[in-house]
Each structure stands twice: as C-alpha cells, then as structure tokens.
Amino acid sequence: MKKYSIYLLAAAAGLLATACGGGSDSVDTASEVTFTTEITRVGVLTELADGAQMCLYVAKGSTVSRTDELHKAVRQSGVWKGSPSVTLQPEEERRLFAIYPFDQNAADPTAYPVTVAAQEDVLFSGAGALVTYQKPAASLKMRHAMAMLAFDIRSYVGGTLQSVTVADEAAFPTEGTLRVSSGRITETKRGAYTHACNVKLSQGGGTGDAAAFFVIPFTAKTSTQLTLTVDGKAYACSLPAQLYDRGTKYVLHLNLTEAGLTLLEDQTETVSLDEPGSGLPTGEPYSLLRVTHNATDFTVPTVAGTGAYGYIHWGVEGAAERYEAGKKYVYPSAQPYVVAIDLWNATGVQFGSLTGVSEIDFSKF
C-alpha cells in the first residue's frame, strides 16, 4: 500500500486572558490541530483536492470508542482542518483516527457505513496517532478498506460492454460497517451489484481499468455468478471461488467468442492497488472449431501448434473447461450437440474418431 502521510501541525489559536484576584493574569495557548495528506498511488485516488472531506475521530483514551467525538475534516489550500476546529490545551492529549470519505451518519467509529453502490475508495487509518499539547505533530498511514475487481476481456465478436454484475445471496456483500482501528468490514446485507459501463471490446483486451469497481472484501463461492452484458446480450459464468481481500485488485481475464464467455481462472492476477494493472498478451492467432454430433460421449480432437491452448464449450449450458488433448465428456442422452472449441496458436487438428459426428465447421479455423 502507498503511504498516506498525515502531518498534524500546531498553530497558535490566540491568547485567552483570565482576570484573577490581585490584578494578575494567567495565559493559556490553545493549539489548533490541522493535517496534510500525501497521496502518490497509481490507478485509484491520485489526489484529494481542496474541498474534500473525511471523518476525524478524536479519542481521549488509547483506543477509539463509540463515545469519541466525530469531526468533519475539510481540505483547504492543501491543509486539513477540523470543522469545528480541534484544539488542545496544556496537558491535554488525544488520539486521532480517520476514515475517508466523510459521512455525517458515521458518528460511530466502530461502524462506519459502507455500501458497494457508492463506489468509494474507502480509506481508514488503523491505529490512532497520539497528539499532545507539547507534541501536536503526528502521522497517519491510510489504508484501503475495499477490494477491487477488474475485467480484462478479449472479445472475438466485438461489441460494447454495457454492464458487469456480481450476484450471490449467500456470499456477495453489498453493505457493511467498517471499524476504523482494524479496517474490518462486518457484512449487513448480501445480494447483487451491477456496474454500468460503456467499453468497446476487441481481441486486444486491455479493458481492465475501464471495467473495474470496488467491492466489500468477501470469499466467493461456486454459486457466485458473474454476468457481462454486451450489446444487450447477457453472458454468464462463475466467479472464481476464492478470497477477495482488502487493498487488492483482482484482474480477471475472460474470452468472449461466438461460443460464449470463458473465464481464464488460472490467469487471474493479484495486483496491489499501488501498482498499475497488466493486460493479456496480444497478437496470438485465434481459431474457432465447431463439431456437431449426436453421441452420448465425445472426445475432443488433438490440436497441433506451438503453444496452442484453448477452451471447450461442450454444448450443454454451464459445461466448459480448458482444452486438453483426449478430454472426454459424457452426455445425459443421445441428441444433437454442438461442441465449440476456442483455440489460440493452433495450426491443425486430428480426430481420433468421427462416430456420431454429422458436421465439422472449419470456416473460422
């Protein structure tokens, strides 16, 4: 994670004169707490501009609690100031905790509301920074509370990606509450989220950043559904069943062909939010082979070609897997099926048997 360095600066707020017996005066100086932020990470937030706001929690003890004060911090001319001002008197000390962005309903630092629909890069400070009257300067390192999903799509049918939907009533969180000291988000609601977009697709891919969005950290199950809508048509597959942790972008690589949508699970990349994502290599020759048969089982042909690889769509909804020579599929009954095989770097194919085969389509090989 890149470091969000927050420096707390002391500024004289004025002199408070109190009349005492005998005409003597005692003078106290109140220090106003301010701070600056340095944001240098790539690909997400690059700068918090003037006018930005965040939650500043001022704790009297060593840990933050529900009773600690919430202040709005506003960035003005590069400096963050409390609104109302946060000041320290002699002998006073406090611990500062922060969450970006500001939410007036986030008075409880142990339950900051988070929702996927807001698509905010939520940041939290973790351990608080001690500020005293004598040493009012401190530093907070802001961390990412959310995870990110990105989709690098190679399309061999062109089209425009209009939306990406992740749905699972049993596993996908859409709302939760964040604890500022740990960054842990407790789920409060599960369901589905649809991210609208307008991305032109091509064989070269490179859509990772254009089709990316924040999610609450979660562990996907085999039931977690991913749906891409391209030119009004929905293409679905399962999201890889794994942990999607905070502070991390997961680049999922997919192929969209006339045969359907294939998620290349073994090519999923885990990228720090501090680093730019990477795309799939381009320039590999693509072929599509279709075989129509009416057998109760079918064995794919052997593919020739240096570095050849592919994905098999067995002609049954949801039945698709990576190509391997000699791979066999058993069908529930004998009826016409169309097996479609997406291939890259293939120069030829050889069938071991044509039993039950009625048509072989080489038109796009």
Number of strands: 31
Mean pLDDT score, rounded? Answer: 82
Q: What is the molecular shape? A: elongated
Runs in which pLDDT lies below 50 for 5 or more consecutive residues are: 1-27, 38-43, 274-283
The class by helix and strand makeup works out as mainly beta
Percentage of residues assigned to helices = under 10%
Main sheet specs: 10 strands, antiparallel
Span between termini: 45 Å
Q: Strand portion, in percent?
A: over 45%
Radius of gyration: 28 Å
Number of helices: 0
Verbal overview:
The protein has 365 residues and is mainly beta. Helices cover 0% and strands 54% of the residues. The chain has no helices and 31 strands. It is elongated, with a radius of gyration of 28 Å. Residues 1-27, 38-43 and 274-283 have low confidence and may be disordered.
List its traits.
365 residues; mainly beta; ten-stranded antiparallel β-sheet; five-stranded antiparallel β-sheet; 31 strands; 54% strand; disordered N terminus
Brief summary of the model shown:
It is built from no helices and 31 strands. By secondary structure, the chain is an all-beta fold.
